[in-house]
Specification:
about 120 residues; mainly alpha; 2 domains; elongated
Length: about 120
């Protein structure tokens, strides 16, 4: 939704969504877009398929920034706060050794969290 826009441009172009802090809402997505929860579920299903279909083999996975953040969170147990601070640089590569059962349940953030202090539910 805000791709290619500066923070000021996004705030001016989408004031209602900016007010809702829509890119930090777990189960609400922007109009025509996915919620963070939906992206996590979709990426987790894809990683499970890779784990089952390519066990013991090398796999190269190419993804855009947000999906790369989700992969990192699922595979490393990244906290909710760290999830939003983490960013891959353009063309940056990450290496993971994918062992059976490595994928973690990121979980839904607690209802009382805000973007400055939020941790996944256990």
């Amino acid at each position: 939704m805000y791709e290619g826009l500066t923070r000021d441009e996004a705030r001016l172009a989408y004031p209602d969504l900016w007010q809702q802090d829509i890119t930090r809402q777990w189960d609400i997505g922007p109009p025509g877009g996915e919620s963070i929860q939906t992206v996590f579920e979709r990426v987790a299903a894809g990683l499970a398929t890779l784990e089952n279909d390519f066990a013991g083999r090398n796999v190269v996975l190419v993804a855009h920034g947000f999906v790369a953040k989700v992969i990192r969170a699922l595979l490393t147990g990244l906290s909710w706060d760290a999830f939003f601070r983490y960013a891959l640089k353009n063309g940056q590569a990450e290496h993971y050794t994918f062992m059976q059962g490595l994928m973690r349940d990121f979980g839904r953030p607690s209802a009382s969290c805000d973007r400055r202090a939020c941790r996944p539910r256990s």
